[in-house]
Specification:
Elements lengths: L1 E2 L6 E3 L6 H10 L5 E4 L5 H12 L3 E5 L2 E5 L7 E5 L4 H14 L2 E5 L12 H7 L3 E5 L2 E7 L6 E5 L4 H14 L3 E5 L6 H8 L13 E4 L4 H13 L4 E7 L6 H8 L3 E8 L5 E7 L7 E5 L1 H5 L5 H9 L3 E6 L11 H11 L4 E4 L2 E6 L7 E3 L5 H12 L5 E3 L12 H8 L5
Parallel strand pairs: 2-13, 3-12, 6-7, 10-11, 16-17, 20-21
Antiparallel strand pairs: 1-21, 3-5, 4-5, 7-9, 8-9, 13-15, 14-15, 17-19, 18-19
Helix pairs in contact: 1-2, 1-6, 2-3, 3-5, 5-6, 7-12, 10-11, 10-12
Length: 414
């Protein structure tokens, strides 16, 4: 598939449900009945739903919604295939360790090339028996956590913190933490709003959860509008501060962005409009660790944005980009350079030397990271010659139906 240079992309888009919040809502259903609307149907969320079903959750579908209820009987042994979803794998590990379930947590080849992370040590210190493959998936657990836990999480990690919050909510054991930089806070927002953490509710009445539109999916559209002449795209979307670092970067670089807030709890939601950035003033800026954490999933997209504007942007990564679907430090740098831009890595910093109109286009060969695919698509629409993308369907992991959405806005695709 080839994404060709495009202009005047205009319209309102209905963005799919947020992937991160959907997965957290499914795991909440293991503790308390939930009825979920606007769930994400991407691959990672399907893996999460399959995992909670394997743990015994009762799942019923209604028109336009899904009900997930706690198991009547928990399995003694289970094998969880998390696919390519590290969040599902880590949340499953925490659920098993907090339920006394003997479990093997595995996934596809890409997931098994990624580290379990400090979560393994956390659960062991909490009293569970956990053994990984020399720090990588698959991982095995048995026994049950048995005491309170206090941690410093450095650098911050939304999946590590979210997994430990699941264990805390499931057992009633105390979990307190400090983290820097701050990571996404969907778990503590959702579980406290549902009264499942820090103390469990006693009512069995289901909690209704409307999944907010995905912040990362809209970031792709915001970048697309900002880089293609005559474009203006708007949508109702999640505007949580810990998920909108990319939008703040668009503004910092002179982009035209308008945000109208609608609500703040349990999630911040608003209508956001992104329009073509016609600012030609040269800017130099540094993205520090907290700003980077707030756009952790959009770094490849941010690199493409910067490469095609008049700027020099230094991303201070502090080593937090390595344990993703790809090493997003090197893959973001390679992506920019392969399409005619100019970027380099110095120590752990990604430096992008941007120039308007610098992207010439190229080919993205056999990608494994959905964020790279979506960033490449934006590069193609804003380049001189377009970008050919092999296996473009991988982008559906983060943005289900992204190709049809691009076409509906007028992006030229062949």
């Amino acid at each position: 598939m080839r994404v060709l240079p495009s202009q005047k992309l205009r319209g309102r888009v209905k963005v799919p449900g947020d992937k991160s919040v959907t997965i957290r809502a499914y795991f909440l259903g293991l503790m308390h009945p939930v009825i979920i609307n606007n769930e994400s149907v991407g691959r990672d969320c399907r893996s999460a739903l399959k995992a909670v079903r394997s743990f015994g959750a009762i799942i019923k579908r209604y028109k336009g919604s899904i009900k997930v209820s706690p198991p009547t009987n928990k399995p003694e042994n289970v094998k969880i295939d998390a696919g390519n979803s590290a969040t599902t794998a880590r949340f499953s590990l925490a659920w098993a360790a907090s339920s006394g379930i003997s479990a093997e947590i595995t996934g596809d080849e890409n997931l098994c090339s990624r580290k379990v992370g400090e979560l393994e040590e956390d659960l062991v210190s909490w009293g569970a028996s956990v053994k990984s493959n020399n720090g990588y998936f698959p991982v095995f657990t048995k026994g049950k956590i048995e005491k309170d836990l206090n941690l410093e999480i450095m650098p911050g990690s939304g999946t590590r913190k979210g997994a430990l919050l699941i264990a805390s909510a499931n057992t009633g054991l105390s979990f307190s933490w400090k983290e820097k930089p701050l990571s996404r806070d969907h778990s503590e927002r959702l579980y406290s709003w549902a009264d499942c953490w820090p103390k469990k509710i006693t009512s069995n009445d289901p909690v209704w959860i409307d999944i907010p539109p995905d912040a990362s999916a809209f970031a792709v559209l915001a970048g697309l509008a900002s880089l293609t002449e005559g474009s203006s795209i708007y949508s109702r979307v999640l505007t949580n501060k810990r998920r909108t670092g990319f939008l703040r970067l668009v503004e910092k670089l002179g982009g035209n962005l308008n945000i109208v807030k609608e609500s703040e709890w349990p999630e911040s939601i608003g209508t956001v409009t992104s329009s073509f950035n016609n600012n030609n003033v040269y800017l130099e800026t540094i993205i520090e660790s907290q700003e980077l954490m707030d756009m952790i999933d959009e770094v490849p997209l941010a690199a493409i944005l910067c490469s095609n504007l008049n700027c020099k942007v230094t991303f201070k990564t502090d080593g937090i980009l390595g344990n993703k679907e790809s090493n997003r430090l090197t893959s973001s740098c390679d992506l920019v350079n392969s399409f005619g831009g100019d970027a380099e890595i110095i120590d752990d910093d990604l430096i992008v030397y941007g120039k308007r109109g610098s992207l010439t286009g190229g080919i993205l060969k056999k990608p494994s990271d959905h964020r790279i695919v979506l960033a490449a698509a934006v590069a193609g629409a804003s380049s001189k010659g377009g970008v050919e993308i092999e296996n473009p369907e991988i982008g559906n992991v983060a943005f289900p139906g992204w190709i049809n959405t691009f076409k509906s806005l007028g992006v030229a695709i062949e």
